Amino acid sequence: MRNTLVIVAAVALLAGCASGPDWLTGESDRYRSAQYLLGRGEAASLEEAKDRARADLAKIFEVTVAVDTEDIQTYKTAGRERPAGEYAAQARRRITTRAERIVQGIQIAELWQDPDSGAHYALAVLPRAQAAASLRQEIERLDAVTRDELERARMTGDLLLRIGIASRAYEAQLERQSYQKSLKIVDVTGRGIAPPWELDRLRADLGELLGRVRVAPRVVRDDAGGLDTVAGGALAAAGFLIETGQNPGYLLETALELDDLGLRDGWFWTRGVIEVRLVEVAGSRVRGTQRWAIKVAATDRTAARRRALDEADKILKRDLRATLIGFAAAK
């Protein structure tokens, strides 16, 4: 009888071991969710199980990176689909780098192998306090940048410079938003750090400043015909006040230069350059110049030039707002 009890106890113990540690399907007694973020991985090999556990935890931050990048590109393209402007690329690199720094703090805390199937299991952990400290530091830095830029904007009388400063303040808070989203995941309270400024208010203030800039479009070269209409439409779409009187604050000089490449494989090819230059009327100061390459084809020369004009229209409506803000932001 005694031997029978021993055998039963041993079987029960083995059954408990085979069921695996508590973290496989639920809360870990050692790594509580209040102190750690957890990721789990299962695979036939030990190393793959570790990688899957890290990826399971990291995907929390990868989702916020994708969303934040989309938000920033939306701002820079004024609601259009394609990204424009240098800041979008810079912000993407910063956000991605931030996510990578957080992921580097992930540790493989526990391992287990199922004695029946041979499958390997891994538990990845990330201390909430460690990740939160890094995120809070970045948020505080961006708040300081915004505060300084807004103060500078109040001090300057140069409207275009003020737009550039206000743009950098807005961009800093737009980037801050991504850190806040990650911090709300890491922070067990789910609150993070409330922003001192409303993003919508900063965006509205920037739009109001843009609307105060009196710009007169001026075509200096037009090899296609109709560039005056294209330039005026792009300015209006960008949110600037088109000056039709005699006292513009700025001139937007636009040129479309085309080169006929001739007939190739049944198509008439045309290439060229669309150029914009913003000139401050007082003092004839050039505040910035931007050029875009164009290459199109059509079944005849006239149609090819029309397509070149259409391409110029797309480019300016897509990029002009970000380009002129870039001129303003240039130091």
From TrEMBL:
It comes from the Bacteria. Pfam families: LPP20 (PF02169). Residues 21-126 form the Lipoprotein LPP20-like domain. InterPro entries: LPP20-like_dom (IPR024952). The keyword Ribonucleoprotein does not apply. Residues 1-20 form the signal peptide. Keywords: Signal. This is Lipoprotein LPP20-like domain-containing protein. It comes from Candidatus Muproteobacteria bacterium RIFCSPHIGHO2_02_FULL_65_16. The lineage of its organism: Bacteria, Pseudomonadati, Pseudomonadota, Candidatus Muproteobacteria.
